[in-house]
Amino acid sequence: MESSRRLCKYKVEREVLDEQRLEEVTQRKTHSDTHRSLTESFKDSLRCTVPKLKRSVMNSLPVLYWLPKYSIWDYGMPDLISGISVGIMHLPQGMAYALLASLPPVFGLYSSLYPTLIYFFFGTSRHISIGTFTVLSIMVGSVTERLAPDVAFLRMNGTNITTEVDIIARDSYRVQVAAATTVLGGLIQVILGLVKFGFVGTYLSEPLVRAYTTAAAAHAVVAQLKYIFGVSPTRFTGPLSLIVAGTLISNYAYLNINYTVSVVGEIPSGLSPPSVPDFSIFGEVMGDAFALAIVGYAISISLGKTFALKHGYKVDSNQELVALGLSNAVGGFFQCYSVCSSMSRSLIQETTGGKTQMAGVASALIVLVTILKLGPLFQELPKAVLAVIVFVNLKGMFKQYSDIATLWRRSKIDLVVWLVTWVSTLLLNLDLGLAASITFALLTVIFRTQLPTYSVLGNVPGTELYLDIEKHREVREIPGVTIFRSSATVYFANAELYLEALKEKSGLDISKMIIYKRRQEAKQKRRERRAERRAKRQARKEVMDTCIDGNVTDKEDQGWTERENGTVFVIPTSPGAPEGQGRWEYLKGGDPECTSLGWMSELQDGDTTTLGSSSEDTLSHDLERISLGSLGKWTWDIHSIILDLSTANFIDTVAIKTIKNIFQDFSEIDVDIYMAGCQACVVEQLEIGDFFSESITKRHLFASVHDAVLYCLDHRGATSFPRYESSVVSKIR
């Protein structure tokens, strides 16, 4: 009572807004208005005007926006210093990462040159450094060694096959494979960017990316051990290739017989001319190209957004996808392999004062000078040194193992994603590992939406707030009203669970209650029909008593002849028949208007009285009104249920059908259902899905839970609960 009085004071504060009244006040656009607006917007997008053309060109070529405003005095020197620093890092990293891709070192330098210049024109980030990266290099290496293994290039010595590999032919074909894969991956990125699929990178969560790069670092370490120890084991690719590598290292532990040190070798001076990739390879590398496209974009956009947030500018995710795709697609024609931003180089570019992508141009010039003039200086560089450079650059990735302890404290599910990604990438190789990791991460999302948290809400006294009554001590439940909320949107995967949770939280097992009620209603109808038939028989009996001849015996005066076996003989009246010449009819237990089988089955129902009972008492008993409360099986004091749908951002046809069934089922036990907090898009989807009808109108939708509560209390009364008196229905045994 006290809580009811506290809530009643809200009735005078403001108008209660249901969805219909809210639309009248706010004049919400209808679905047809929205459709018309979209049509007009589409028509406007097809119109070509000078301002629109200029805006499109500026969005496609961001360099045209910032380059005219470039201040040499403010940005020139910082960009130059930053570019030189990053360019110096490009040289060892480019050659070292080329070894990870199983390519000659000079192609790592090419990959540090052309893509950087392309990104200068199309990129929107001011601080990331485009070029070779550890993870992508390993992924490319798995493709090149799978399609161009050493065993396919063994030299022929007359009729015998030697163990010597034709390195020139092998490397030449590997370059073709890497270039074709890079071009295809770049085209995929461009297409995804043009169709505004820049959000695709969001499916790679941070724990997934960090675990993936950590496992890739382990692959990089194993790939570089042969250069560190100067051995030449046969490299395996595919699932479980890293375990194989450990066995080979153990087999080659006798290093005293191997003293030959491998060096970089000849670095040709000058730039190689562009060449068309071998398109016949596309079919064999489609999956690898897609994986390269997604991973490269995810790494680049995450770094770009980090620097953009720090320095207060915006990065266009779709344009970044196009810029990275063009960098790869164009670079592939110049024998480059897949590139993305590098964390180490990007940090150097930002911390040394870089302001724009002019720093990227400066770094590309350093690489260009090296290719043209300084290449011979690196020919005698041992590959072991490059391998050590790779090790040093992997230091940051190995530090990511500390994520395990952090995620253990913060999120067990993210920890499981991290571990599954790491194990699958380590054992299944990079391409299959990525696919397995993304699949598992998406399954965790489905699992969490399929099993959300369900709660019953109560009012915070003196406010319009409604919180979980199980988690807040001072929250008060609304008398007669149950407010039910799910922590996730309702859709096909959890609609059935939503209904089951509603039954549990409300304490009303609606399915059993409806079945029981309908069974009792059917029995009630049968009792009423039997009472009506008995009344008709009684009336006919009275008529017959007045018409039967007085000479008939006492039994005959009553119109009945009974035998011990229950057979009844009746002399009906027949108009026009001679007096006293009535025809006897033989019946088996009852009414001439019904079959004996059906009537006898009703007699055996257990709820009827015998023929010898008082007809007046039986009629009075049969006409008794049946309700769940009077049956004594269930009692409850809930008159309204409010479904809080504020967490729903969409609703599908399965959920619409489920909610309609909730309205219909609970109405059978005299419980009203209302919905509250629906977003405009959800209301529109309800309209399209034919949710509303004569029985379910927009008067059942409210702008907030508090509006719905006020309406319930005003409509049914704060203390107006269903009061059912338990009574026992007598049953004939």
UniProtKB/TrEMBL annotation:
<dbReference type="InterPro" id="IPR002645">
    <property type="entry name" value="STAS_dom"/>
</dbReference>
<dbReference type="Pfam" id="PF01740">
    <property type="entry name" value="STAS"/>
</dbReference>
<feature type="transmembrane region" description="Helical">
    <location>
        <begin position="418"/>
        <end position="447"/>
    </location>
</feature>
<keyword id="KW-0812">Transmembrane</keyword>
<feature type="transmembrane region" description="Helical">
    <location>
        <begin position="289"/>
        <end position="309"/>
    </location>
</feature>
<feature type="domain" description="STAS">
    <location>
        <begin position="471"/>
        <end position="712"/>
    </location>
</feature>
<dbReference type="GO" id="GO:0016020">
    <property type="term" value="C:membrane"/>
</dbReference>
<feature type="transmembrane region" description="Helical">
    <location>
        <begin position="177"/>
        <end position="199"/>
    </location>
</feature>
<feature type="transmembrane region" description="Helical">
    <location>
        <begin position="97"/>
        <end position="122"/>
    </location>
</feature>
<feature type="transmembrane region" description="Helical">
    <location>
        <begin position="236"/>
        <end position="255"/>
    </location>
</feature>
<dbReference type="InterPro" id="IPR036513">
    <property type="entry name" value="STAS_dom_sf"/>
</dbReference>
<dbReference type="InterPro" id="IPR001902">
    <property type="entry name" value="SLC26A/SulP_fam"/>
</dbReference>
<keyword id="KW-1133">Transmembrane helix</keyword>
<protein>
    <submittedName>
        <fullName>Solute carrier family 26 member 6, like 1</fullName>
    </submittedName>
</protein>
<keyword id="KW-0472">Membrane</keyword>
<dbReference type="Pfam" id="PF00916">
    <property type="entry name" value="Sulfate_transp"/>
</dbReference>
<feature type="transmembrane region" description="Helical">
    <location>
        <begin position="211"/>
        <end position="229"/>
    </location>
</feature>
<dbReference type="InterPro" id="IPR011547">
    <property type="entry name" value="SLC26A/SulP_dom"/>
</dbReference>
<dbReference type="GO" id="GO:0008271">
    <property type="term" value="F:secondary active sulfate transmembrane transporter activity"/>
</dbReference>
<feature type="transmembrane region" description="Helical">
    <location>
        <begin position="128"/>
        <end position="148"/>
    </location>
</feature>
<dbReference type="InterPro" id="IPR018045">
    <property type="entry name" value="S04_transporter_CS"/>
</dbReference>
